[in-house]
Specification:
The complex is a heterotrimer of chains A (420), B (294) and C (497).
Chain A: H1 3-23, E1 36-44, H2 49-62, E2 67-75, H3 81-87, E3 95-99, H4 103-108, H5 119-125, H6 132-136, E4 138-139, E5 142-143, E6 146-149, E7 154-159, H7 171-181, E8 184-186, H8 192-201, E9 206-208, E10 213-215, H9 226-238, E11 242-243, H10 247-256, E12 259-265, H11 269-276, E13 280-283, E14 287-290, E15 293-296, E16 299-301, E17 304-308, H12 315-325, H13 328-338, H14 345-349, H15 351-354, H16 357-365, E18 369-371, H17 379-390, H18 400-415
Parallel strand pairs in A: 1-2, 1-3, 8-11, 8-12, 16-18
Antiparallel strand pairs in A: 3-17, 4-5, 6-17, 7-12, 7-13, 9-10, 14-15
Helix pairs in contact in A: 10-11, 17-18
Chain B: H1 6-46, H2 66-73, H3 81-112, H4 118-129, H5 133-146, H6 153-161, H7 169-176, H8 181-188, H9 193-201, H10 206-222, H11 226-230, H12 241-248, H13 254-278, H14 280-288
Chain C: H1 2-42, H2 45-49, H3 56-60, H4 64-90, E1 102-105, E2 110-113, H5 119-155, H6 163-169, H7 175-201, H8 223-229, H9 238-272, H10 279-291, H11 294-304, H12 310-317, H13 320-326, H14 343-372, H15 375-383, H16 388-416, H17 419-426, H18 434-438, H19 447-456, H20 461-485, H21 491-495
Antiparallel strand pairs in C: 1-2
The chains are: A alpha/beta (420), B mainly alpha (294), C mainly alpha (497).
Chain lengths: 420, 294, 497
């Protein structure tokens, strides 16, 4: 006889479930006459917490006569925002900062609220519909996020005591100078983000139609083939002045003196500046050589965006807050306190921003950069392809067929609609 | 193969013993050093002035106590160790209470009482144990969410202690060794089962209670998977020690927080190691389910 | 070996016995229902009425509290069914059809959301409803029997027990019910229901592209199982990754278990040897390694062996790296030792690092057993002229194996699911196997970490659930083997005669 037990089971469930079905139904529909109580959760990088808190405080002050706010700030790095949001969209923050490479997956999952308040102003402030930052935040002609920074791309850092201004123009020049110095150059090739530079730079294409990627990196009929690009990468990888390092290892290497040049982004600018002092310099990516012709490395133009959760209960205020985080004043404030490059045209035009070497280098590179619009299946196959080169699985002794097979497999992975 | 003659053996025994003793100590010292190198590195780094990873040399160039001071008194938005410690302590205390009760209740019933469903329930428990816990994580999350319990320390207590009844085997092993005669004597005196449980068996079960309390108390300090999923708002002040520290090694943060991570590692490890060393013998009993007791 | 063989030979008979058992289970249920039917027919009006109003008979027999509680239970149940059970169960077949939609309203300054179906809620609530309905049905039908018994007791002139007396029973002869209720309830809510839920998910298309609340998912039958086992010609397939991951899981579990086992025993022998002084100190030194929480020690070790890590720097300074490169242990394109990045290196390192954790651990738990090996076994071996190695092989190991066999099997299963070591050391590792990468796996992934990655990074719950079921099946096979192969030490019978 387990009657008591069963009774408890039933009662507990009954109470629990009935209790919560009631609480999760109708969203509140209060008017705007009384002072609305608004509770919002914001996710921003651990490193930006103090700054974001000050912006939240000023936001609460600005709109104090319209609503009573209860805003919580959580720490989620821009790189992980997508993972945290998609795990449970309903429980995710109302407003969150993310890197633009995550826009597609967030958009596909319908997690982003379309920007419907002050849309035109926001687009204008960032340089109009054709501006990279607006494109990066839009899908199907609609704006889905607020551009916050335009500095999330990558470029070349170097120690000007090791490299001359002509050395840094070509990959070969960099490697020769590094070898002469006894230090090393790094650019992470087992990472689809950086690997893109070579293939795109050589004129190959990668496009995304909203559900699948299309990619001709394994096409043997293009004027420059993927196999030729691969050989160029292998040649770089085999050079003893080159080392493949992750972001964190790049920092260690710079601090340590073993790295004198590297491809990386603004987030590590302060590290390089501290290590190299007056010799700290930055410029666009170098050119690389295929059969005697020089090709300019391309790159992904990176932006940090602020998104509003589509399931947010207080969409209006969430949008207002996102707008606040990304307005001109706050972009300048962000540059001043954190060195992050503004996407807002007026903010970006200010003298202090223009004179920042890292941001100037990004501006130089922007001529060769493309907006990052790739599907989620791009990353894993490309990092593995790069890793094959790093580990010597693909080397100068590999046959053309081996390289072609590796390219084919990578492209099959990139183009897969989902794994079937 | 040469066979040592027993007589020669006896004659040389004294000198040989000395040599062997020295040899053994040397071997053990070398092994222990090898085993402790990472731990020494942990401690060394916690005294380093360099905030990132020092890859030039094993020991820091300059030694400092600043990391310890910062850990406790100079918190920032990434690292708020005192708060994490407090959170984890709260969760650990409550889940230790609930888990201990559950474990004792189940193990007592399974060991000392006889009822129709006993064997089936025990078999069912074994089957449940074969499913990977990670798998059901997301379903547990949604159940708690629909009960409105996520992002709260109480949810962590539920996660750590709710199904603790499944871990009854060790305690059952203990109760199995308590002679049945004790109960029978009490029964003749007219005691109810409840009174036997409370007044006869519990008082002599101190060792197993201590063990259960310690084991369940330790769980929240080392879990970095479940807590991460339950604490949805990602407010660093709401973290437990484990996820807070795990977060410090995020690739954006590792170069600024590595030394602090090591410091926190040392601070957390000291009490845990002490508890662990103290309860070694119970622990042995625990992992082997008593089966290695000859 | 014979025992293993006979285990497999016995499978058919065992299955038959199992079938008989399930058969008799249904027979019992049938009898139970028949019994209730008989009680219903032979009972008085109150017994009959209790089919509709559960507690009514109790009021007749003046057990008001009990009657009231049962009434409450019944109303609670009806309310639950109307409010939660029925609406969700109705949609269980499709898991919902109305997709999420929202329109921005400038006037209200908020999104207007339609009354959409939430597949996950439907599945979960349906499951919970079924559990509750079954539990309630059991109570309800049992109740009829109880009512009939009460009627009989009344007729026989027996005193009907008061509520207090009945409660007291739960602290005496039915004390186990009191003891077990809450813990079992906890297990049902936090373990059983989630497990059944995830098993069900294996038969749906719940993944990134069908993620509630914004998207619906639905039943797909055995499709996910086909995906996992079917090898296609395409280079984008789960089947290849599955084979690779399973074989590495088993290889890993084998080495992780047996190397640490033998190493740990040797360490224990060394420490407990009569030539060792300060035994306690040595033991404690080794135990400290495992007492440091794994997420601290393993994350530390990961940075210790990183490409730009202290070990690489030191070994390069000492010339070890160059020597390894010259002798072909490290690819010539590298200037560092790829401890945790190269496939072979990382697998070996994982096993070695696991030894680092495992030796002290096994040392700790085998010390007691080693002490218990009868002295005369050793003495007689020595008289026979056996050397140390022979003693270890012929006496120590067989004895240890005999006594610790159950531990070995559980630790094998434990290692198969050794999430911490693999995840903490190699979660960021990039594979060089393109086919693995296309299935979101890596060379060093165990089934359990692959499963975790699929859920956390790719929201691929359908495949993760299938893999979870596979893990269960493999674990179950090894557990059954273990139970058949070893003699279960049953202290119950030894001490409680």
């Amino acid at each position: 006889m387990k009657k008591l037990l069963l009774l408890l089971v039933a009662l507990a469930f009954g109470i629990g479930l009935i209790g919560c079905t009631e609480t999760t139904t109708v969203p509140t529909t209060e008017g705007t006459t009384t002072l609305e109580e608004v509770s919002l959760v914001v996710w921003a990088s651990e490193l930006d917490q103090t700054l974001m808190q000050s912006m939240i405080d000023s936001f609460e002050e600005e709109y104090a006569d319209e609503a009573i706010f209860d805003i919580t700030l959580g720490a989620v790095s821009e790189a992980n925002a997508k993972d945290e949001v998609l795990t449970d969209i309903e429980a995710a923050a109302d407003v969150f900062v993310f890197a633009d490479d995550q826009l597609n997956e967030l958009y596909t999952a319908s997690a982003l609220q379309e920007v419907v308040v002050d849309t035109a102003d926001i687009i204008a402030a960032n340089g109009g519909e054709n501006a990279g930052s607006v494109q990066a935040a839009s899908r199907d002609g609609k704006l889905y996020a607020y551009p916050m920074t335009a500095d999330n791309g990558y470029f070349l850092f170097y120690d000007s005591s090791v490299y001359s201004e002509t050395d840094v123009l070509t990959l070969d020049g960099i490697l020769a100078a590094a070898a002469a110095d006894g230090s090393q150059f790094t650019m992470q090739i087992n990472n689809g983000w950086y690997l893109y530079s070579f293939f795109q730079g050589a004129g190959l294409s990668l496009t995304y139609d909203g559900s699948v990627n299309t990619c001709n990196w394994d096409d043997a009929t293009t004027s420059v083939t993927g196999a030729q690009v691969t050989n160029a990468i292998i040649e770089m990888a085999n050079n003893s002045a080159y080392v493949n390092l992750t972001d964190a290892e790049f920092v260690t290497g710079v601090n340590d003196g073993s790295i004198s040049a590297g491809v990386n982004g603004t987030w590590n600018a302060s590290v390089a500046e501290a290590a190299w002092g007056d010799n700290y310099a930055a410029t666009k990516l170098p050119t690389f050589d295929i059969d005697g012709t020089a090709y300019q490395m391309s790159s992904f133009a990176g932006y940090k965006l602020v998104g509003v959760n589509a399931t947010s209960e207080y969409s209006y205020w969430a949008m207002k807050l996102a707008e606040w985080f990304t307005n001109e004043d706050n972009q300048i404030l962000r540059f001043e306190s954190r060195g992050l490059g503004p996407s807002n045209v007026n903010a970006a035009a200010s003298e202090s921003v223009m004179s920042n070497p890292a941001i100037a280098a990004l501006a130089q590179q922007s001529a060769y950069a493309t907006v990052q619009n790739v599907g989620g299946n791009y990353w894993s196959p490309t990092e593995t392809f790069g890793n094959l080169i790093v580990n010597g699985g693909l080397s100068s002794s590999s046959t053309a067929a081996e390289i072609q097979a590796a390219l084919d497999t990578m492209v099959a992975g990139i183009e897969a609609s989902s794994v079937e | 193969m040469s066979v040592t003659n027993i007589k020669t053996y006896r004659r040389n025994v004294k000198m040989k013993t000395t040599l062997k003793v020295i040899a053994q100590q040397v071997i053990l010292a070398i092994l222990a050093l090898f085993w402790l190198i990472p731990i020494i590195w942990l401690i060394a780094n916690s005294f380093s002035t360099q905030t990132g990873i020092n890859i030039r040399q094993f020991f820091p160039e300059q030694w400092t106590l600043d990391n310890y001071y910062n850990l406790f008194f100079n918190t920032d938005t990434v690292a708020n160790f005192p708060k994490w410690f407090e959170n984890t302590l709260i969760v650990a205390i409550f889940s230790a209470i609930v888990s201990t009760m559950f474990v004792l209740m189940v193990s007592y019933a399974m060991s000392r009482m006889r009822f129709k469903m006993r064997k089936p329930l025990m078999n069912f428990g074994i089957i449940l144990g074969l499913f990977p816990g990670v798998l059901s994580m997301i379903a547990v999350y949604f159940i708690l969410k629909f009960m409105g319990l996520t992002d709260h320390l109480a949810a962590l207590v539920i996660i750590y202690s709710g199904s603790s009844g499944l871990g009854y085997l060790v305690a059952k092993g203990f109760f199995d060794t308590v002679p049945k005669a004790l109960d029978e004597a009490a029964k003749i005196d007219g005691a109810s089962e409840f009174m036997i449980f409370l007044k006869i068996i519990m008082p002599i079960s101190k060792p197993i209670i201590v063990y259960t309390v310690l084991v369940s108390f330790l769980a929240p300090w080392v879990d970095f998977v479940f807590a991460r999923i339950i604490l949805t708002s990602n407010d660093t002040n709401g973290f437990t020690v484990a996820i807070g520290m795990y977060n410090m090694l995020d690739r954006n943060l590792i170069n600024t927080y590595f030394a602090l991570f090591c410091t926190a590692g040392v601070v957390v490890s000291i009490p845990i190691s002490l508890l662990f060393v103290l309860m070694q013998s119970y622990y042995v009993e625990g992992v082997t389910g008593g089966s290695t007791k000859g | 070996m014979n025992k293993i063989k006979s285990f497999f030979l016995n499978i058919p008979t065992k299955c038959k016995a199992g079938l008989n058992k399930t058969g008799s289970f249904f027979v019992r249920i049938g009898k139970e229902i028949a019994g209730v039917g008989k009680d219903f027919v032979s009972g008085d009006i109150f017994v009959k009425a209790s089919l509709f109003v559960m507690g009514i008979g109790f009021f007749r027999r003046k057990q008001f509290v009990k009657g009231f509680l049962f009434l409450l239970l019944q109303f609670g149940f009806i309310y639950f069914i109307l409010k939660v059970g029925a609406p969700n169960l109705a949609k269980l077949g499709t898991l919902g059809t109305v997709e999420y939609q929202q329109i921005w309203s400038d006037e209200l300054r908020m999104n207007i959301t339609n009354d959409y179906d939430h597949s996950l809620k439907i599945l979960l609530f349906s499951l919970i409803s079924i559990v509750i309905i079954l539990a309630y049905a059991f109570v309800h039908f049992r109740n009829i029997k109880v009512q009939r018994q009460l009627q009989q007791d009344e007729k026989d002139g027996k005193t009907i027990p008061s509520f207090i007396t009945e409660v007291k029973i739960f602290f005496d002869s039915k004390f186990h019910v009191t003891l077990l209720s809450l813990p079992v309830l906890g297990i049902i809510i936090l373990t059983v229901i989630p497990l059944i839920f995830m098993i069900l998910v294996a038969f749906t298309n719940f993944d990134q592209y069908h993620y509630p609340p914004l998207k619906l998912f639905t039943w797909v039958g055995l499709n996910n199982f086909k995906l996992l086992f079917q090898t296609g010609s395409s280079s984008v397939t789960y089947a290849y990754a599955f084979r690779r991951v399973v074989s590495w899981t088993l290889i890993w579990a084998f080495f992780a278990t047996f190397l640490t086992y033998i190493g740990g025993i040797l360490l224990a022998l060394l420490i407990n040897s009569k030539y060792t002084r300060w035994k306690k100190m040595w033991r404690t030194l080794f135990v400290i390694t495992i007492a440091v929480p794994q997420f601290v020690s393993l994350l530390l070790v990961r940075n210790f062996f990183a490409t730009q890590g202290i070990v690489n720097t030191l070994l390069a300074n000492w010339g070890v790296t160059d020597w390894l490169i010259q002798n072909g242990f490290v690819s010539s394109s590298l200037s560092y030792i790829p401890f945790l990045t190269d496939e072979v290196w990382s697998k070996v390192m994982l096993i070695l690092i696991n030894c680092w954790i495992g030796f002290p651990y096994v040392m700790l738990i085998t010390t007691g057993v080693l002490m218990n090996i009868p002295k005369d076994l050793y003495d007689s071996a020595r008289i026979d002229g056996a050397n140390k190695f022979q003693v270890f092989r012929k006496i120590t190991m067989p004895y240890m194996l005999f006594v610790t066999a159950p531990y070995l099997i559980t630790s094998f299963i434990g290692n198969m699911n050794n999430f911490n070591v693999i995840y903490l050391l190699t979660s960021n590792r990039i594979t060089s196997d393109q086919l693995l990468a296309n299935a979101n796996a890596s060379d060093t992934d165990l089934l359990i970490t692959w499963l975790f990655k699929l859920t956390q990074d790719y929201y691929n719950y359908k495949m993760a659930s299938v893999i979870g079921i596979v893990i269960f099946v493999i674990s179950a096979i090894f557990t059954l083997l273990a139970f058949n192969y070893t003699i279960k030490s049953d202290k119950e019978s030894r001490f409680q005669l």
